[in-house]
């Protein structure tokens, strides 16, 4: 995302009409005036940061208010402009989003710790105000982590711990696993570089040792599914380094992880999911204890799919069977709703978070009962992890 420009962003927003693009240009022009003369630690013009955050969000086909808010997300923090000014410039929703991602100023607190706790609470509870706030914050944190090399060592470690304790769990609980995984992979080298390198080396060796066997498994499954006329897409996946790191910290051995490798089978509909299951049963043994039907009983982050752990006598591996839409939700979580539900995306997000997301009600309860920001953050961290 080097040398990000408004032209590159607009080229990504092909799904916007002219009115929506004009809103984006208006937000950009205002942000570029506010950030004029400001630079990032990398030496780039500061405006490249909000442009990059907006560009990340464009991958999810978010609405124009979200893109505009991403472009303006540091305006209140870095100037004397207010929420009301944003509302006059664009609209009420953009103002709410920008205010939701704006840090509370340092002068409002006695200590830096108090400020951090208040802002952490505000970040987390943005989910209640408008779920788009969290999505913008995740994109913001992702770009900051991508450019973390330009920060000092203390900042690198602090931000990395905050990322894996707050932002990565928020990405998980809202189902945005594509951001969760990248945030974790970017953070671990700053938290424990030595272990990161050791795991990375071990992982490469194990993959090299087993890749041919796994590819044979891939083709075997594909052949048998096609014999049953089950249209499919199959992907091989290896557990990311941070997930391995957490397992090893609990005493596991990397070579004994039954879910180090997974085979994802994506089919057209739910009926095909259940038709795929007996094909796997015939090919590879597993026990009932290794089976989970998350279609009938979705996970707390709204994930759906059929999971089973099995073996081909040389490798243990996990099989995940999902539909195309389930796969979109698994990868992008609530950020997939713009593509799935279009104009009803925000309404559907709010409905599903309140009805299906386990962590949502729990966080509201913690927020209601916490007597201080410090207490809220302490309890919320435990719940999120």
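^ structure tokens above, recovered residues below v
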């Amino acid at each position: 995302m080097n040398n990000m420009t408004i032209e590159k962003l607009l080229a990504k927003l092909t799904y916007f009409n002219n009115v929506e693009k004009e809103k984006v240009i208006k937000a950009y022009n205002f942000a570029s005036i506010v950030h004029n003369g400001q630079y990032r630690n990398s030496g780039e013009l500061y405006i490249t940061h909000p442009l990059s955050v907006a560009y990340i969000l464009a991958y999810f086909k978010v609405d124009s208010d979200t893109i505009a808010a991403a472009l303006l997300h540091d305006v209140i923090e870095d100037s004397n402009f207010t929420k009301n000014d944003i509302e006059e410039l664009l609209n009420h929703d953009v103002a709410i989003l920008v205010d939701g991602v704006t840090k509370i100023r340092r002068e409002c607190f006695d200590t830096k710790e108090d400020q951090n706790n208040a802002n952490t609470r505000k970040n987390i509870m943005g989910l209640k105000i408008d779920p788009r706030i969290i999505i913008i914050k995740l994109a913001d944190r992702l770009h900051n982590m991508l450019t973390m090399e330009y920060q000092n060592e203390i900042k690198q470690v602090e931000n990395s711990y905050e990322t894996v304790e707050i932002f990565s769990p928020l990405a998980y609980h809202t189902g945005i696993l594509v951001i969760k995984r990248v945030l974790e992979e970017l953070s671990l080298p700053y938290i424990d570089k030595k272990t990161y390198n050791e795991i990375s080396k071990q992982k490469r060796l194990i993959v090299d040792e087993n890749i041919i066997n796994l590819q044979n498994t891939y083709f075997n499954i594909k052949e048998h599914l096609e014999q049953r006329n089950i249209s499919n897409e199959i992907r091989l996946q290896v557990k990311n380094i941070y997930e391995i790191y957490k397992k090893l910290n609990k005493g596991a051995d990397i070579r004994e992880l039954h879910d180090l490798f997974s085979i994802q089978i994506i089919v057209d509909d739910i009926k095909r999911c259940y038709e795929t299951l007996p094909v796997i049963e015939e090919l590879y043994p597993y026990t009932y204890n290794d089976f989970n039907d998350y279609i009938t009983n979705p996970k707390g982050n709204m994930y759906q799919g059929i999971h089973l752990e099995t073996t081909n006598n040389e490798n243990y591996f996990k099989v995940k069977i999902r539909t195309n839409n389930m796969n979109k939700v698994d990868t992008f979580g609530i950020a997939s709703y713009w593509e799935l539900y279009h104009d009803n995306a925000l309404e559907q997000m709010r409905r599903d978070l309140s009805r299906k997301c386990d962590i949502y009600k729990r966080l509201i309860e913690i927020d209601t009962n916490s007597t201080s920001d410090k207490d809220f953050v302490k309890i919320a961290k435990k719940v999120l992890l």
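The two ends are 30 Å apart (CA to CA).
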